[in-house]
Amino acid sequence: MTGALLEVSNLHAAYGLTRVLHGISFAMQEGTITTLLGANGAGKTTTLRALCAMVKTQGEIRFAGQRIDKRATEDIVRLGIAHVPDGRGTFVNLSTEENLRLGAYVRKDRENVDADLERVFGYFPRLKERRTQQAGTLSGGEQQMLAVSRALMLRPKLMLLDEPSFGLAPLIVKELFGILRTVNQKERVSMLVVEQNAAMALDLADHAYLIETGRVVLSGTADEIKGNEAVRRSYLGY
Amino acid sequence: MDAFLHQVLAGLATGGIYASLALALVMIYQATHLVNFAQGELAMFATYIAWSLINAGVPYWPAFFLTVIFAFVLGVVIERVIIRPVEKAPVLVVVVVFIALLVILNSVAGWIYSYTIKTFPSPFPAEPVFGKYMSAHEAGAIGVTLVVLLLLYAFFRFTPLGLAMRAAAQNPESARLVGIRVGWMLALGWGLAAAIGGVAGMMVAPIVYLDPNMMGGVLLYAFAAALVGGIDNPGGAVLGGFMVGVLENVLGAFVIGNELKLAVALVLIIGVLVVKPSGFFGKVFVTRV
Amino acid sequence: MTRRQLIPIAGLLLAACALPLLVSDYRVFQFNLVLVYAIALLGLNLLTGYNGQISLGHGAFYAIGAYCAAILMDKYGVPYWATLPVAGAVCLLVGFLFGLPALRLEGLYLALATFALGVSLPSLLKYHHLEKWTGGVQGIVITKPEPPFGLPINADQWLYYFTLAVAIVMFLLAWNLLRGRVGRALVAIRDNHIATEVMGVNNAMYKSLAFGVSAMYTGVAGALGAIAIQYVAPDSFNIFLSIVFLVGIVVGGLASISGAIYGALFIQFVPNIADEISKAAPWAIFGIFLIGFVYLMPMGVAGAVRMAVARLQRKAQNGK
Fold this sequence. Notes:
The complex is a heterotrimer.
Chain A: E1 6-15, E2 18-28, E3 33-37, H1 44-51, E4 56-63, E5 66-67, H2 73-78, E6 81-84, H3 96-103, H4 113-123, H5 125-129, H6 140-152, E7 158-162, H7 170-187, E8 190-195, H8 198-204, E9 207-212, E10 215-221, H9 222-227, H10 229-236
Parallel strand pairs in A: 3-8, 3-9, 6-7, 7-8
Antiparallel strand pairs in A: 1-2, 1-4, 4-5, 9-10
Chain B: H1 2-32, H2 39-55, H3 60-83, H4 91-113, H5 136-158, H6 160-170, H7 172-177, H8 182-208, H9 215-229, H10 234-254, H11 261-275
Helix pairs in contact in B: 1-5, 1-8, 1-9, 1-10, 2-3, 2-4, 2-8, 2-9, 3-8, 5-6, 5-8, 6-8, 9-10, 9-11, 10-11
Chain C: H1 3-22, H2 25-50, H3 58-76, H4 80-102, H5 107-125, H6 131-134, E1 140-141, H7 155-179, H8 181-191, H9 193-198, H10 203-229, E2 231-232, H11 239-252, H12 257-275, H13 281-296, H14 300-319
Antiparallel strand pairs in C: 1-2
Helix pairs in contact in C: 1-7, 2-7, 2-10, 2-11, 2-12, 3-4, 3-10, 4-10, 5-11, 7-10, 8-10, 11-12, 11-13, 11-14, 12-13, 12-14
């Protein structure tokens, strides 16, 4: 599958002695939104962490043709991959604006950062209201927006989102996913979204992979997966 | 009343030195959750380097700045070479390494410079400034301390690198995810802490005279100050430093005599650790440094 | 203890008893100090090695024991052997009292508090209001005890045997304590104090007692040391003494009774050899050894010996 933005081949990962991923393989084209679905503990978060070299892995990971599985997290970020982690990873003692500026830390084009800040405030006006507020005092939904915005400040080629709907009211999730769709279309940011909320994820994504106990068991377009009997019964509840 | 004022002002002067050292301790603690037992010896060693430079004919202020740079580099090297390997090790191992560092720095200084006490010059004039209340050096020390603290505050608050260092100290994992090289931020933190220590050493040496063991008591007061202010609170550490300095002087002159001054530090340390381990300003004084 | 372990110990005891008859008086004095340090290190190891509570201030307990002995002998004419139980009791109490607030301190904070104790102790000893007991900066000089019952040995030799006897008793006591329930509790608390609390072990009691007993051992050692050196003065009990003890247990081997002996040999003899290079050299060497052992031989000499013995035993079994 040449030309894919992200190619994962036979990825194994373990936490200490506990094996979590048993040979995951999948790929993503540029400009698409792909979702990784699966139950708790299936290995979805581990997959995202593996992409950013936050766990020990075996296997190949290629980004824009280059192998990144042996690189350090800080270098992978510099290639244009922004990770919105599980739990948001907010710098709680820093202000909203400081959090955002940190998102642009590695960028060489400093002169555009201020403009990008305004752009991000355009997507999430509530953040602009709270720009000098300590980030730890923001609500859950606002912190999620902050985490996504911080990732956007990198001007990433690929965004990894780990359970962005977690703990958020459905209305807020809808708003957030709407903005993600807009960002994807307007700015050609590819996205890999890990989600437990299969229904909303399948509405957002173009492609989907189903992961069970560390392996990919099903793949296809979002519509195909939505239509799949087994998936409907286990993950969509009807 | 006169004598009291004099003690308070002298206490502010030494307090500034404690504040600087306490700040260095807190910087390292914030980033690593480790207490740098060797902070005093680092400062002492840097001061000896300054002494060598001055003795070789270098004028005071150039020697001062060269020493600060040297201390910075030394701090970075120590972090990368000695501390890095034991960052995740059990507490006892870490403590042992710090103590070893303390001991090695102390003995190398003794080796090179011998244990005879030396005088260290002050860049400030010898005549007292505010009448009989304060010597020029004491006033100067306060001034230098304030300048250093202001520069640090500005660095952390307004520069991208300072922001990155704060981020790395608070949340290393998220810091990595925005591309910050956390390891180097730690090294930088150590460099800064060592540099601050060097300044503190050069300010205190004219008062206590230069010998390899000169920082022992000073370090204890700095620990007390850092604990009083909240071991992870830079602003609190600074305030704590001034408080401890004044307290030490006033108690020493009027209440318990000069010999028990160190015991004051001991009581403060144990008292704070037992009664309010987060320090008196731990959660109340929220600063952005 | 197995028959196999008894043989080297018996051999060691035999050698220890024969020693004073074979070497010069000065060497006897040095080995006397080795025994003294061994008792002190055993005390520190009990607390830090077995129970995981870091102390950078054990020099203070050594000093308290030493001054107890000196003051009792000098000011009150108490016989030297009677000062030991007093020194032990005082340090047991002081250690226990210090251990109470220390209960709330973990790792680094405890290290910090004990560090403060170690640094500030000399100044407390020099306090002029206490001068009439402590002798202030000059300290106290005491006379060497004579061998009793007119035994045909000199004072140095007698003191050595006396110290040896005390050491044997204290080592036996410690060995007995550590291999039983108390020892297991101490180690369990060190390794997982949350689990032990949940299992119903009284963490607080064990930890405070550990502090008290550890201080008692080091205090008795201090008394013995004072008697041997015949002199106590504040500046000999500064923070570096506490650091020396730390070096001793790291080099000798944490959580090991034999480690106390290896460590004592190290801290007694290495500085003498290093002194010839420079006055500062002993400490540089201590520092380097500290770092070296922590990185390369974390189980200390005792651990290395244990591994070597195990390897030899395996070879012997494979050879059969």
